[in-house]
Amino acid sequence: MSGARGTNRAQGKPHRNLVRSYEQDLRLFGSPMSKVGLGLMLATLLVLPTVVRDDFWLSVLIYSGITAIGAIGLNLLTGYCGQISLGHAFFIGAGAYAAAVVGGDLGLPLPVWLLASAAIGAVLGGLIGPFALRLRGHYLAIVTLGLIFIGEHLWRNLRDVTGGNNGTSVGAEATVGPVDLGALELAGENYSRNQGYFWLVWALVAIIALLAKNLVRTRPGRALRAVRDHDQAAEVIGVRAGRYKIGAFVVSSAIAAMAGALFGSYQQHVSPDDWTLLLSIQYIAIIIVGGLGTIFGAILGAIFVGALPALIDEYSSAIPGVATEAGGDGFISVFALNQAIFGLLIVLFLVFEPRGLAGIWFRVKAYFKAWPFSY
Amino acid sequence: MTEPLLDVWDLTLRFGGVTALNGVSFTVGRGELFAVIGPNGAGKTSIFNCLNGVYRPQRGTITLAGQRVNGRSPATIAGMGVARTFQNLGLFEQLTLIENLMLGRHHLMRTGMLAGMAWWGRAKREEVDHRAACEEIVELLELEPYRRIPAGLLPYGVAKRAELGRALAMSPTLLLLDEPVAGMNVEETEDMARYLVEVRRELDLAMILVEHDTRLVMDLADRVLALDFGTPIAMGTPEEVQHDPKVVEAYLGGAA
Question: Which spans of this chain does the record mark as coiled coil (chain B) (predicted)?
């Protein structure tokens, strides 16, 4: 395994999958196949909005991307560090209002309002984090549940910032210098707001996924997982569990706040009804369906849970027994059907595939790696 | 005589009305293999829990290389060079074996959350350097086939060895082994004994061994401390302790 060991010239180059140094062993996209996969993924993200020009589907994908960012944040906290939080919606809301102030009222550009909301999320996460030192499991879930209600009270009453019950418009524009992603013009071609936001959001998904992946595969990430698996043993081998629990809250809330900022900027109007307990539960469902403790799973889960209601919506007229309009024929409304399928999925995944969509993906990958042998 | 590495003086630990340790004193020299024996509930594991800061003794002092140990947090004590294995396995089950070993080096590494996210630069350099250090332990303990297997899926004997490996990855000056061969068959026990001898020869460290397998203790230990109900009843070379009437009585009851 040592890197100094030379290859035998007479036999030509070593096999492309042979690892000859630790540095090589640690590459994220080491094998040729994964490089091809990465290339395909990036190409898809670049080309997709020019192929799918339909505003409805683009907006579904944009919301999925924003949700993916938030889900990566929650997965760091819950999937990797084992801290169950029902308060994710609170940090997402805080991020949206931060963007409304910094990007809208102050009129600062995209990088500034995005980082400002991340900073506010980090500070709020740092304030809540210490609760995790004394509480774990269900007790922590209850405390973070309280956060949702405190948040709701704040959002409804801090009218100067949040606009109270009616909500506030978010004027944070997606501008970087002279480039406005809301009305992109490249080489004489005009792109719609949805196309611009698709590229912005999914580029951020890729960046944040990469940062999160790096975090979890290095020293701090191992420490997070050690705390999740066995926090006393972690202390005994020198991991300061408390520090990592708080750190997980800080990073997770910062990412959640960025997702909120993007949500606000894209939707242009947010109200307290956007950050209810339901949103937190939806995020927990996403990381369960996608796969706890995987970055990729958070993204898969977000696409799945984001796209499913849209699919049902789109094809509800073809499903028998579904009432597509109020008072129409059928015994179940589109909304109720969505909720029912959603609940059913959580149950099915928990029972049959606890590793989520990512687990299915790993199994398929392992099958093809070993093909034609079954092990 | 040079100063001992570890000096434990008058250690007393109580849980409510129960006295788990009562005036335990001993010293461990550099490079020495010191064993603690005693019947179930004698307080052997409690000594370990005091040594690495999990329990706070009510009385007594623990000094490691001139520095006071008791009163500090487990993570600080780990940084001072005290490593430990657990009686019922303390591996992180969902992490691979190599990740478990890398966690042993946690206190020797510096990468924080932001540096880890950035990867390029220090994080990457540290990962490579410490991976190389872990591989030496993989080689020493012959764990090569298991590198990428989650610790929870390792066979029991291998898991025990992996835990020893994680403790060694910490580059400790004092290694605490809590029943390293508990639940093992004769062959696995012999393997573990062989690794312990090898570790002693290769790495210059002191060890404290808590073990029920008296043959292993008698074969490996330089000195032995016998406890009964938290009270020291004998200390000396394995032969002396083995034939001490109080030790025989503690193990076999009054009639012997």
Answer: none
Domains and CATH numbers, chain B: 6-252 (3.40.50.300)
User: Would you state the pLDDT for residue A338?
Assistant: 81
How far, CA to CA in Å, does A239 sit from each of A1, A232, B85, B155?
29, 9, 15, 26
CATH number of A56-174+191-370: 1.10.3470
B contacts of A229 (beta carbons < 8 Å): 92-95
For residue A226, the chain B residue with the least C-alpha distance is: B92
- Bridge-based pairing of strands B33-37 and B18-28 is unpaired
Q: What tens digit of pLDDT does each residue of A285-335 get?
A: 999 999 999 999 999 999 998 888 888 888 877 777 777 666 666 777 878
Alpha helices by DSSP H, listed for A218-321, are 219-229, 231-236, 241-267, 277-290, 295-315
> How far does the CA of residue A305 sit from the closest CA of chain B (Å)?
26
Distance between CA atoms of residues A279 and B80, nearest Å: 46
Beta strand residue intervals within chain B, DSSP E: 6-15, 18-28, 33-37, 59-64, 67-68, 82-84, 174-178, 206-210, 223-228, 231-236
Per residue in B78-98, pLDDT (tens digit) is 999 999 999 888 899 999 999
Question: Domain coordinates of chain A in residue numbers?
Answer: 56-174+191-370
Chain A residues near any Cβ of chain B (below 8 Å): 1, 21-23, 25-26, 211-212, 214-215, 218-223, 225-226, 228-230, 232-241, 247, 251, 293
Which residue from B177, B12, B158 is spatially nearest to B82, judged by alpha carbons? B177
Which parts of chain A fold into alpha helices (H)? 22-25, 32-51, 55-74, 88-99, 110-128, 131-134, 138-157, 159-162, 193-217, 219-229, 231-236, 241-267, 277-290, 295-315, 334-352, 356-370
**Distance between first and last Cα of chain A:** 25
Distances (CA, A) of B143 to A104, B139, B154: 58, 6, 11
B35-68 pLDDT, tens digit each: 999 888 888 999 999 999 999 999 999 999 999 9
